[in-house]
Structures are given as structure tokens and as C-alpha cells.
Amino acid sequence: MEENKETLEELFQSLDDVVEKLEEGETSLEESFRLYQKGMEMLKSCNDKIDAVEKQVLILEENGETHEF
After folding, report:
1. Are 57 and 68 in contact (CB under 8 A)?
2. Cα(68)–Cα(65) distance, rounded to whole angstroms?
3. How many whole angstroms separate alpha carbon 57 and alpha carbon 42?
């Protein structure tokens, strides 16, 4: 499986574009379903990226030591 190299900002913009197309109501049922699937895949990519960042966040303790979030 190819790893998604888009940044979170790019993914959010792409999701916004998908939502706008769906809200227009000008698409066929098949196209709406394809856009929905694409949006759900992008949402999963966003969640995966956010989870990865959360795991990298370090907490600085009072004594100057750090540990993972």
C-alpha cells in the first residue's frame, strides 16, 4: 500500500473540496458515493497522521526529563 505523503493541511483542504462537491447536490448517486468513500479514506489518513504526531509529543517534567505522551 502506498503511503500518503500529503500534509494534514492538504488533506483538510481536499476534504473540504469533497464536502463542497457533495453539498452542491449536482453529482450523481454513483459520484456522490465515490466522493464519500474518498472523503472517508482521507479522514482515516488524517486520523493516522494525528495519532502519529500524538505519539511523538514529549512531556517535559519539572526535573527536565522528557517522556513520550
Report:
1. yes
2. 10
3. 23
Per-residue pLDDT of 21-46, as tens digits, reads 999 989 999 999 999 999 999 999 99
Q: Which H/E stretch holds residue 60?
A: strand 58-60
β-bridge partners, 32: none
> What is the phi-psi region of residue 67: left when phi exceeds 0, alpha when psi lies from -120 to 50, beta otherwise?
beta
- Rg for the chain, CA atoms, rounded: 18
Alpha helices in the chain (DSSP H): 8-24, 29-56
Structural domain boundaries in the chain = 8-68
